[in-house]
Amino acid sequence: MMESDLAIITLVAIIVIGTSAVEMFKYYTKAKQRNNSHSVDDLLAQNKALVERIQVLEQLVTDDSFELKRKLNQL
Question: Are 42 and 49 contacting, i.e. CB atoms less than 8 angstroms apart?
Answer without folding.
Answer: no
